[in-house]
């Protein structure tokens, strides 16, 4: 009887559990937001309990921000939570404007050093320069303070002022300066010029797709062509351009192609994000030959422009395969003036290929994201029937070598020796030649080597790093003692002479020094001007544009 009663109870309990499971399953199916509401309730109650009973006080805003960031990290790098405090930085990315003093900084000895002030900006007006060190802001020491924290003091409404205690980069003397904030407008068009032996090519450097940049590029090219009616082509430099506003990418394409021409299509999970973007106006010149320079850090809107002009056989793309950022972000307003920048769709060029390189929805077991293999890439055709591939990024029509950063170069940069030498050089030279012609000599290089004497710029080559890992494994597996002598011989043969390393990489080091020194006198514009002296990709663009047969051959070859 007891056994029968126990069986009945188990049957009833099982039925109740089964019915409950069916209820929750039904509720889940009937309400697609069931899981969301359930987990939000869990999170709210957990946070309440934590705030009430945790032994020490917690910082709710900081904790929630960290939790949101961790949650979004499982999606893609472009879906971000933007707090009210960060909203100005977000606006700067789309407008190029902010309230501040107009300079970038680098860290040294726990303080901030002015690295590249904006020409005629507040820093320059206050008599400060690159190399000067900021010690205090309004009487508060910034020793070991993060740049993000110091920025909160420095940025602010135009017209307001604050005091800084600075150490002069030339003399070491300390003084107090007053800085008055202004609206800083960082142009996305830092350099425009006529290049070539007879100035017959219009060169435009675009660093970001900000508001109105499409029209600015149009005006710049138009001015160069009017100044030289014999202009034979355009070089559009999108290297290191991370993208920006989609509409501006369409406007830029409209400079070279007719109105009502498809530029890009977006496709998302929801139909509202399935959109087409076409040119809307009259082109500036639909016949002039065009070359587009890209590299591995050209992304998003840069890839739309390069991909569109390539698909329409309207220009020759030169450089390295682009980054492959084909995800569309939309900004949504959420509570308390915060925003969510969320990925809503993907970009597709006129031929139908997707720009996106990485599939964040299918991660590897370790959480990493792999690129699409060549076997899975699909062929598409340009207007003239040329084969182009999807799988992420834009493959150039003319590939140029990828310049790997040498260990000694990265070491000199990381330890600020290039930057510090430029400060030393500027303290010894009140002026230099024009940015378009300035070059360093062998004597300047020898002076740099002498200046480095006694400074630690040692580093390990990749071979030495590999040898260290080999030793680590050998020790763990208990066979290092047997090969110790052989290891020592290999280690000795791999050791390098620092001075010889400098001499072997003289050309690259001189280029770095020249870049930094020119910027001390002619700012960012001068840096770009000087780089034209030996830019191999610009030389390649001029070579293509100067040979109409070669140019047309590239665009028509099937």
Integer average pLDDT:
88
Helix amount: 40-55%
Give the amount of beta strand, in percent.
15-25%
CATH superfamily of the largest domain: 2-enoyl-CoA Hydratase, Chain A, domain 1
What is the chains' assembly state?
Answer: single chain
If you consult CATH, what is the topology of the largest domain? Answer: 2-enoyl-CoA Hydratase, Chain A, domain 1
Count up the domains. Answer: 5
Structure class: alpha+beta
CATH-level-2 architecture of the largest domain: Alpha-Beta Complex
Distance between the termini: 88 Å
CATH uppermost class of the largest domain: Alpha Beta
Q: Which consecutive residue ranges, at least 5 long each, have pLDDT under 50?
A: 1-30
Number of helices: 18
Question: Globular, elongated, flat, extended or rod-shaped: what is the shape?
Answer: globular
Major pleated sheet: 6 strands, antiparallel
Q: What's the total count of β strands?
A: 21
Instruction: Report Rg.
Output: 29 Å
